[in-house]
Design goal:
Length: about 325
């Protein structure tokens, strides 16, 4: 597998490794909070399919399945503990507490689980540098119970799994199309592990890195960047027939505003003195903006940012017109 061949050439010295990923900025913001794996395992209930009372795959089982797969593929590498973020807490209470006022509820009488959860596992001994930014390999996943029909019988459950790179200076995630399965379906933990292993084995790490490195070779002038932002604001209001031949854009207006602001004042990815900005910086402004997405749409928007920036690079490299710059 190409993944196993390439990883050996990207090992960095032990002393250069960031020891604890949780000390850095969060990889997603929105309305999320950080929790521990132990909290998910000990303090949270597990949703069931109501028609047959079969358990769903619990969040901690999903994380453990991916963690086990990562350790199997990357044996010998330094693998950090999973970093978790959750949102949309679902509250309940035990039967004995029915009718009890909320203010009188004891902690032991409350139940919770999180509708949405995202995690990542850093592998800091597999690393590369692009434009002075250090990138570490990262694997992770997303679970969103709101995308399951919990009122039916147990069936295939949906998961999102990814492998890519994390930009250390900003914790932005760089995810490519072959490094993301947006709808991995499984009915058991064992089937989930098998499919995660398959996805990890098919990831073409070197191709992904080469694409990311090439972004530094192309730049937009201030005028081109302004036109790009303006067209991004226009995209969502285009008549549907006109969108067919235009690369999709999934970021909302607020996120485009974040990109515009970052052009002027981002500490790492702002414009040059002449107003120009490299596509590597534009890409990181886009991925920074996606951090305000909800967990269930985060990876889709991250991948969309990658695909859009590839289209811009192809336009500049081959002098092919693209709507965003016309």
């Amino acid at each position: 597998m190409e993944l196993q061949q390439v990883r050996k050439s990207l090992v960095i010295p032990e002393q250069d490794v960031i020891v604890n990923s949780t000390l850095s900025k969060p990889f997603i913001k929105a309305n999320t909070k950080e929790v521990s794996l132990l909290h998910l395992k000990k303090d949270c209930t597990i949703p069931v399919f109501s028609k047959d009372n079969e358990c769903t795959v619990a969040h901690h089982e999903f994380i453990n399945a991916v963690d086990t797969s990562v350790k199997a593929i990357f044996s010998g590498q330094r693998i950090l503990s999973p970093e978790l973020r959750v949102s949309h807490v679902i509250k309940g209470r035990i039967p004995e507490a029915i009718g009890k006022p909320v203010k009188d509820l004891k902690e032991t009488e409350k139940t919770i689980y999180y509708e949405r959860m995202m995690f990542k596992i850093d592998i800091p001994t597999i690393s590369e540098s692009i434009s002075g930014n250090k990138l570490n390999l990262v694997v992770g996943g997303v679970r969103a119970y709101n995308q399951e029909n919990l009122y039916s019988k147990k069936n295939f459950e949906k998961f999102k799994v990814f492998i890519g790179f994390k930009n250390i200076v900003c914790t932005n995630l760089c995810v490519s199309s072959d490094g993301l399965v947006e709808e991995l379906r499984a009915v058991s933990v064992d089937e989930l592990k098998a499919k995660v292993l398959d996805m990890l084995g098919r990831y073409e790490m070197q191709n992904h890195l080469n694409t990311l490195k090439s972004l530094s070779q192309y730049s937009l002038t201030e005028k081109q960047f302004a036109k790009f932002l303006g067209k991004c604001r226009m995209y969502n209001y285009l008549p549907k027939p006109e969108k067919g031949n235009i690369p999709a854009l999934l970021l909302n207006d607020g996120q485009i505003n974040t990109v515009a602001k970052g052009y002027y004042d981002d500490n790492n990815f702002s414009r040059q003195e002449d107003g120009s900005i490299s596509l590597w910086k534009v890409y990181n402004l886009l991925t920074e903006a996606t951090k305000s997405s909800y967990i269930d749409s985060f990876l889709t928007r991250s991948l969309n940012s990658y695909e859009l920036i590839q289209k811009l690079a192809d336009s500049l490299q081959n002098d092919i017109p693209i709507w965003y710059l016309n």
